[in-house]
Amino acid sequence: MGMSLLAGKTIMLLTLIWGSVIAFGSYDLSQPSDSSDVENKRPFSLTGYGVSTDVETYHTSRIMIVSMIPFLILQMAKVLNSSSGRRIVVLVSLTVTLAFLFLYFTYQVFQPWIQSRRLEYLMSKHVQKNLLLSLLAGSGRPDVTIIRDLFHKIDKNNDNHISPNELRALILGIQIEEVGLNEDDYEAMMMEEFDIPGDSHITETEFIKGLSRWINKAQHPANNQGHDKPKFSNSNSKKSTEEQQRLLAQRKESSGTKKSWLNYIKATFLLILGTALTVLLAQPLMQTLEEFSTAVNIPSFLVSYVVIPLALSYRQTLKAITSARQKTEKAISLTFSEIYNGIFMNNMMGLAIFLALVYIRDLSWDVSVEILVVLLICTAMGLFTCFCTKFPFWTSILAYLLYPLSLLLIYVLTTFFGWS
What we know:
Number of helices: 14
Order of helices and strands: HEEHHHHHEHHEHHHHHEH
Distance between the termini: 11 Å
Strand order of the largest sheet: 1-2-5
Structural class: mainly alpha
Oligomer: single chain
Helix content: over 70%
Radius of gyration: 24 Å
Strand content: under 5%
Shape: globular
C-alpha cells in the first residue's frame, strides 16, 4: 500500500490538478494574458483558449523528469530471477534517490530560484487572503489612513521607525505558519521590499508605499505581470535604483549569511528527523489504513489510490485553482512550478522511505505495477511540458482522461495479469 499512496498522489497531481489549472485559468491565447480588450477576444474554442507559462516552468518540469531515473532502474528487477539481484537493484535505486535529494537541496542553496518561486506563489495567495480585505478603502484602493494606523500600532516605542523585532508583530498577525513559511525568511523579504535605503528601519512613508504596492500586486496581478521592477525615465532615478540595490546586497551579505546557514542546518535537521519518524511509523500506518479499508467496507484499491491522495491533496488543489483563476501567465507558471516541485519531492521522499524499509528489513518485494504507471505518466507528461510554454484547453481534457485510464491500467495489470 505504500507505493500505492505514492502513485495515487503523483497521478492525481499530474492529471486532475494539472488539468484543473488549465481549465480554470484559460484565456484567449491570441492576446496577452493581462489584456483587458474584451471586444477583440475570440469566441471560446478548444485550441484558441488555454494558458501560457514562462521559461522557468519547463525547467522545473525537467527536474521532475529526473525523478524518474530511480523508477527506471527498478524495472531491472523484473528481469532478474534471483532475490540477491533484486536486492542489489533496490540498493542502487535507493542510492540514486538519496543522491538526487542531496543534489536537489544543495542546488537550491547556491541557486535559490526554486525557493524564490515557491515563496512568491505562497505570498501572492497569503497576502491577498490576510491583508487585502482589511486594508482596502471603499474605492478598492489601499486605505492610507488604516495603513498609517497599523504602522503606529506596530511602532511600539513611538520612534517613527519599525525595527525588525517590531516587524514580527505584523508577521505573526498575517499568520504565515499557515502556508509553512519561515518567520525569518518573511522578515528578511519584507525588510528588503520596504527598507529601500537598507538602514534596517522602516519609516512611515516606506511602510505605506511598500504595503500599498503589495496590495496592488495582489489585487491586480495581471497589471504587474512582467513589471516586477519599476521603470524610470531619467538617469538620476536609474542611478538611485542601482545604489539601492548595492546597499541591499551589502546588507544581505553582512547580516544574512549567518542566519541563512542556520536556517539550512535547521531545515536539514528537521528533514532528517521527519524522515526517520516516517520510516519508523510507515509499517504501522499501512496496517492502520488496511484495517480502515476493511472497517468501512471500501476496497483497498480505492483507499490507496483515491481516498487518501484526495485527502492529502485537497488543500493544494484549492490553492492551485484559486491561483489559476487569476488568468495570468505569472500565476499559471508559479502554480505549475509548485505542482512539479511537489511531484519531485513526493516521488523522491516516498521512494526513498519505501526502499529503505525494503532494504533494511530485508523484505521480499517484487517491483509493483505502481512503479511502472508512475514512470509512464510522469515521463509522458514531463516530456510534453518541458518543451511547451502554451497549453490549449484540450490538454486539460486529455489530463482528466489520463486519471481514470491510469487507474484502469493498474487494476487490469494487478487483477488479470498477476502483477503485484
